[in-house]
């Protein structure tokens, strides 16, 4: 009796393990197939960027370039004034990163660690602004900036960053709340004021969140299209995104050059992703809320 | 005695002034946000509400025209309805599809299989990339004769559509492209899935629940707050679609082409404001969108009470 029960339960567990293994293999196959689907566009982009125009026009399309035309990249970089656009974009992105880190770490400290009347109201108001579609303030903001004679300068693309952004303030506040108040009390007893506590204690402790903000801000500024489209009116001030659209109309159907230029424009973000992968994921976790 | 009460009183006063000092610090810290809110959000919103009842054209005119802009929007402007239709089409397909795809990816990713980290990276990478380059990449992939998509469809015997040149296929093409980037939501779901306690699965398994039943009765209820968060943010995000209709067109001189099939609401508003300089009309359009988004979000929140499950049972 007992032996049969043991052997039957043994075979039950064996068959369960076998089923589990088969399930895992099926999942792995699906994953690999989906992974190929995800990566194929990148392959197509890279391969097109290295083809000659003649090869692109040939039918059926070739899966990989017959000869590697690296000069496509040089052409894209030189003829599109891409170095200029890249420099402009780098400038805008760096100013954005500095502005966002400064303003949001500062404002979030007030919301997280200082008691003052009306705080809850202001905080709720700030959260509510996240629901306002950006396009609703776009037109009046444009009017404001044009009245200030800021159109045609980089001011509309940089100055607002110094006044905080709701989402990042919210994210940093969540992070600050996890830092024990004892630290602040101890610093206060030592005679430190809030400015000192913010700059010397809070910001250094919030380093992971600050890195997340730096990355997402850089990404956002690098990919910004609408802002420069509205406020920049000189070719010498184009950023990469506007430069790409100009490049397309100049080189209408030259897909090899266009893909080379496109890859150049994506390269910084791809590199950032591979170097700071951990922080991309951490950012999602912080954003998802208090419980983590 | 007098001395004592004096010290007591000064003690109280100093505590009060301490609180006041603390409050001053608090306001000082949040002051940049308050200024930014007034100058860049609240002020512009108020102004645009006023402008939406005028014929403002940025240069000279700003005459009160009452509800004319709003009336014209609904009765005269056929492109308004076209653009609203295009946007709703996009929202209706994009939001559930990306939410579902991200959830499905996360559930599969949650299995213990070697090499999972590489898969996560691969699926997440497309969502990191944005901007004009991605649009050009997809225009090329979706090229009817030389593109990878129709080539792959050909391998399984399907004759692919003309995508970006056929007005009835442009929006599905954009939705397909967006699905490629659905991995962004995956990480949130993954974090939520890993927070579901194992003992719940063990209990369900002992009760003989199949994997599918376990998913519907254990996993889904436990992660409804994240699903809800994703739905709300995706919905607000999807209403913002603009760039695709401006950039992914065959003829760059006519945004929204072919046949206005990619003329999204925000694109129509943008062209009204910055091409024909009908700022008053465009702000009216903006306010209508604002109301639609707020109402949909509130409906979403009200409905959430029926299906979103918060741990501990308190529906906050």
Quick synopsis:
Chain A has 292 residues and is mainly alpha-helical.
Describe this entry's structure for a reader.
- The complex is a heterodimer of chains A (292) and B (316).
- By secondary structure, chain A is mostly helical.
- Chain A folds into two domains: 46 residues; 211 residues, MetI-like (MetI-like fold), CATH 1.10.3720.
- Helix content of chain A is 76%, strand content 0%.
- Chain A has 15 helices and no strands.
- In chain A, α11 crosses α15.
- In chain B, α3 crosses α8, α4 crosses α8 and α12 runs antiparallel to α13.
- The longest helix of chain B is centred in the first third of the chain and has 50 residues.
- The N terminus of chain B is likely disordered.
- Classes of the chains: A mainly alpha (292), B mainly alpha (316).
- Chains A and B meet through α1, α4, α5, α6 and α11 of A and α1, α4, α5, α6 and α8 of B.
- Chain A: One of its GO terms (cellular component) is plasma membrane.
Secondary structure topology:
The complex is a heterodimer of chains A (292) and B (316).
Chain A: H1 2-49, H2 53-57, H3 71-79, H4 82-113, H5 119-129, H6 134-147, H7 155-158, H8 166-177, H9 181-189, H10 194-205, H11 207-223, H12 226-231, H13 240-250, H14 255-275, H15 277-287
Helix pairs in contact in A: 1-14, 3-14, 4-8, 4-11, 11-15, 13-14
Chain B: H1 2-51, H2 68-75, H3 78-109, H4 116-128, H5 132-141, H6 148-155, H7 170-180, H8 183-194, H9 198-206, H10 211-238, H11 243-247, H12 265-274, H13 279-307
